[in-house]
Design goal:
It contains one helix and 18 strands. The chain has about 250 residues and is mainly beta. It is elongated. The chain starts with a strand and ends in a 10-residue tail after the last strand.
């Protein structure tokens, strides 16, 4: 995973950590630190399997009963738990669970003097390609209909893909959503490639006691509610973390 630290204004800014005394000598004041930017750009592609079966339709074959089951019962239902013909598939509109997006995570450290006042902005961008690959109903991932001779059309309907910020494995903020376009009716592979992005400002109030811990882990996860496998290619996802320290006095006032 490629990871680098940058500083605002294009260069390294040295910040004095000396204590500044007020005129009456009664108050100490820590200076504001320079905003620090961490860029996370993972290498390699990452994927999440299709969550639903495609919509089976059309075609011509010699197993009409099983073909009707595919079209009228199995279409667009979740692929897990796996069911066999002629059992009743699971009918649900619930999406898949969130899963990690390969490499899109890091640990953030907060200096002790800023744990009650800093803010940490998380921005992420993920390009998502949908792969629509035909399911063979008599072999491979299919294997429901025996015997089977003929064809069937499969429509890969678009749907919701979401990303969500997790801090120490707990979700923060709202999911960033997009609709993956239809993959069309296929007998081979088609691709669509929209981009999804999101942001969230993490504050001390997001943690117990209204202070940042010394370190915390940020992770971007995704969720697939489509009948297509989703892919984030090499070099097409990133996360930018901007930490803005803010000074405070001995009584905790900025």
């Amino acid at each position: 995973m490629f990871k680098k630290i940058l500083w605002m204004a294009g260069g390294l800014v040295l910040v004095s950590t000396a204590i500044v005394w007020a005129a009456d000598g009664a108050t100490t004041m820590m200076p504001e630190g320079a905003p620090q930017i961490t860029m996370v750009s993972p290498s390699g592609a990452t994927t999440m399997d299709a969550y639903r079966w495609p919509k089976f339709q059309g075609g011509s074959n010699d197993n009409v009963a099983c073909a009707n089951w595919l079209k009228n019962k199995l279409s667009l239902t979740p692929r897990l738990p796996r069911v066999g013909y002629p059992n009743q598939p699971v009918i649900t509109t619930n999406p898949s669970a969130f899963g990690a997006i390969g490499g899109l995570n890091t640990v953030v450290a907060v200096a002790e003097e800023y744990r009650g006042t800093a803010t940490v902005m998380i921005n992420w961008t993920v390009r998502v390609e949908g792969e629509a690959t035909a399911i063979n109903p008599w072999t491979g991932k299919g294997g429901w209909c025996h015997p089977w001779h003929g064809t069937i059309d499969e429509s890969f309907v678009g749907g919701l893909v979401s990303t969500q910020l997790f801090v120490d494995e707990k979700p923060l903020g709202l999911p960033a959503n997009m609709t993956l376009p239809d993959g069309g009716i296929v007998t081979s592979e088609n691709k669509t490639d929209p981009t999804i992005s999101g942001s969230y400002v993490i504050k001390p109030s997001d943690f117990a006691g209204n202070v940042f811990p010394a370190t915390f882990k940020v992770t971007i996860k995704w969720q697939n509610d489509t009948c297509m496998k989703i892919v984030s290619p090499n070099g097409f996802r990133s996360m930018v973390i901007t930490m803005v320290p803010q000074g405070y006095d001995a009584q905790g006032n900025q």
